[in-house]
Write a structure and sequence with these properties.
The complex is a heterodimer. By secondary structure, chain A is an all-alpha fold. Chain A contains two helices and no strands. The chains are: A mainly alpha, B alpha+beta.
């Protein structure tokens, strides 16, 4: 299995736990977790795209 | 007020005894919050942290959690000499007759400092380090004092009278006992079936003896190696034969046990990047539980989440007051 597929569940777990450690109300936790999850995935996607581009000539 | 987390206008987050909650949160993610009645967080921490840890353990074949590992010291032998040999038998052979270790140095796995923060799922690493004593493990006589019967899975390897080699899958049960300290021999019996070249399964009963080899009782591998020469190969129309395979080790005898260099070599060879990922996932789970423990002791870092935004203080006026200079 492509190890890239391990990233979304890991990012989700990290987002949920971090958001839960910041807030108490479930709605707030889930909202902040979703926001953080999107940020992580977008950032990793950008890094993946840059590395993919840099690996072209290899 | 002790044991509560106060915000300006909302009910406090119930922390009860925060230090007890912290200890419970350390031992099991979510347990501290369950004690405090914070059910949503208890379930969230439990599921997220333990699933991350469990996934790491599973892709590492159950062995990425250990406190120490043994690094092989260069003894002049080539890696190729032992890579195809079971790791637990290498350790048995490398030990001196009085059980001392040769050719290896013990090193700490610093990643365990993160793994242990998950609590009970990682704490066996501390206990297993004390139990893993190759000298005592090597005492097969003690291990087989009452005999051993276990499921066996492996191969029957042998030679026919025409010197052609055969290798038949074998499955069944193996019984072993120590024949006596004077002759230092393990003997036993295999009762099961072998799958012949044409696909037929043939039930067999094989007598085992003549210096059978058995892996240590406690070792970082769920499979305990058994190599045993067959005393009656003629029943299979073979000149000589050896049973090569393994019996299952109980979970308590392999989970969290310090890892030998040969085992690490084989795991890296077999799992590749999944071995590193396994350790990374367990580290992340441990580090996440630090956040959960902190939350159990101190409450949420930013408050409940429904506090009104703080009103800005009015800025001091810069307009001169009439009548003043």
């Amino acid at each position: 299995m492509n190890v890239t597929l391990y990233l979304p569940p890991l990012a989700l777990a990290i987002s949920l736990v971090y958001a839960a450690s910041r807030y108490e109300l479930p709605q707030k936790i889930l909202a902040k977790a979703f926001s953080l999850f999107v940020q992580i995935v977008v950032f990793m996607a950008i890094v993946l795209a840059i590395l993919h581009y840099l690996s072209f000539a290899l | 007020m002790p044991g509560t987390s106060l915000s300006a206008s909302k009910p406090a987050v119930p922390l009860k005894n925060p230090w007890l909650a912290g200890v419970l949160a350390f031992l099991m993610p979510g347990a501290g919050h369950l004690y405090q009645g914070r059910i949503f967080k208890a379930v969230l921490y439990f599921v997220c942290i333990l699933s991350t840890f469990g996934f790491g353990v599973s892709i590492g074949e159950g062995r990425p959690v250990y406190l120490y590992y043994y690094n092989r010291v260069d003894d002049g032998r080539q890696q190729e000499d032992f890579l195809d040999f079971p790791a637990d038998l290498i350790v048995q052979q490398d030990a001196t007759p009085n059980g001392q270790r040769r050719f290896s140095q013990r090193l700490m796995n610093y990643g365990y400092l993160a793994q242990v923060m998950v609590g009970l799922p990682a704490l066996p690493g501390l206990i297993q380090n004390a139990r893993y004593n190759p000298g005592q493990n090597r005492d097969i006589a003690a291990a087989l004092d009452r005999g051993m019967t276990a499921d066996f899975e492996g191969y029957l390897v042998g030679y026919t009278s025409e010197q052609s080699s055969v290798r038949y899958p074998a499955r069944g049960s193996v019984s072993l006992k120590f024949a006596g300290r004077e002759i230092e021999t393990i003997v036993g019996q295999f009762n099961g079936s072998i799958t012949l070249g044409d696909g037929r399964e043939e039930p067999v009963v094989l007598e085992l003896g003549d210096d059978a080899q058995l892996g240590p009782r406690i070792f970082a591998d769920p499979a305990q190696t058994v190599y045993a020469n067959v005393s009656n190969p003629q029943t299979l129309r073979l000149d000589n034969a050896q049973l090569q395979g393994s019996t299952p080790r109980p979970l308590a005898n392999w989970y969290g046990v310090p890892v030998e260099d040969a085992t690490l070599q084989k795991l890296n060879q077999k799992l590749g990047k999944h071995w590193e990922l396994a350790m990374v996932f367990t580290w992340i789970a441990g580090l996440l539980n630090i956040l959960a423990i902190w939350d159990a002791i101190e409450g949420p870092a930013y408050g409940r989440g429904d506090e009104p935004p703080e009103e800005e203080e009015p800025k001091p006026s810069t307009t001169p007051i009439p009548g003043t200079t």
